């Protein structure tokens, strides 16, 4: 199992860094027996030394800087993704509530969690831990089935200037004016529907073969 680490927007941490990400990193170090003086969101000398010890213990270059390689190793070990970044990642991947539930069910099947995840579509800290456990077993991959993975859905926005003249499936030219975005113009939705591409009105960018 792999994903684009950059999609999580995790900043590089080093001496002088402050904030919620530092707090999460300090908690991770403490949970893994690399003591820090306090969980205070301030990346000082003690956090720097604990980071170096963590890197050395995990065959990483001991720079004391939390960079991409350090994050990658920490995520494999259950580093709690901060500030709802896990939810942002799934949004980046166009996951809807039902797809998040599918993911949670897959994590329950793969990861060793006690108790198991509640399949509620809310990708919180426990789901993050389940993802980390599944990542460790990445040779066993969950099968996530959705309209997107089947090639039956797409997220996009169409915009235009002036009047858009477009043929529907029956060959009739339809003139479409304002609003000049597919997010809000029901006329272009009707044209799409004539081709079997149906707009989900509750999800701004989402089109699919059945409107879900």
Provide an overview of this structure.
There is one protein chain. With 212 residues, the chain is mainly α. The protein folds into three domains: 5-76, Muramoyl-pentapeptide Carboxypeptidase, domain 1 (Orthogonal Bundle), CATH 1.10.101.10; 85-136, no CATH class; 153-208, no CATH class. It has seven helices and five strands. It has helices at 20-31, 45-57, 68-76, 85-92, 97-110, 125-136, 186-194, and strands at 153-155, 164-167, 173-176, 198-199, 206-208. The strands form two sheets. The protein has a three-stranded antiparallel beta sheet with strand order 1-5-4. A two-stranded antiparallel ribbon has the order 2-3. A hairpin with a 6-residue loop joins strand 4 and strand 5 (206-208). 25% of the residues are buried. Mean pLDDT is 80; it is low at 139-143.
Looking at this protein, list some descriptive labels.
mainly alpha; Muramoyl-pentapeptide Carboxypeptidase, domain 1; 3 domains; 3-stranded antiparallel sheet; two-stranded antiparallel sheet; 7 helices; elongated
């Amino acid at each position: 199992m792999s994903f684009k680490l950059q999609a999580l927007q995790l900043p590089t941490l080093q001496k002088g860094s402050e904030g919620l990400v530092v707090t999460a990193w300090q908690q991770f170090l403490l949970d893994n027996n690399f003591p820090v003086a306090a969980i205070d969101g301030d990346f000082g000398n003690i956090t720097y030394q604990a980071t170096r010890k963590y890197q050395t213990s995990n065959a990483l270059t001991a720079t004391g800087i939390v960079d991409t390689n350090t994050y990658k190793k920490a995520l494999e070990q259950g580093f709690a993704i901060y500030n709802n970044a896990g939810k942002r990642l799934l949004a980046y991947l166009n996951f809807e509530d039902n797809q998040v539930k599918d993911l949670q069910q897959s994590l329950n099947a793969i990861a060793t969690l006690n108790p198991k995840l509640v399949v509620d579509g809310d990708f919180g800290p426990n789901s993050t831990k389940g993802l980390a456990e599944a990542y460790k077993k990445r040779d066993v991959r969950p099968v996530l089935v959705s309209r997107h993975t089947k090639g039956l859905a797409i997220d996009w926005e169409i915009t235009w200037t002036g009047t858009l003249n477009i043929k529907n499936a029956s060959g009739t030219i339809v003139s479409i004016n304002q609003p000049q975005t597919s997010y809000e113009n029901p006329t272009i939705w009707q044209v799409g529907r004539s081709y079997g591409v149906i707009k989900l009105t509750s999800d701004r960018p989402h089109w699919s073969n059945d409107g879900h």
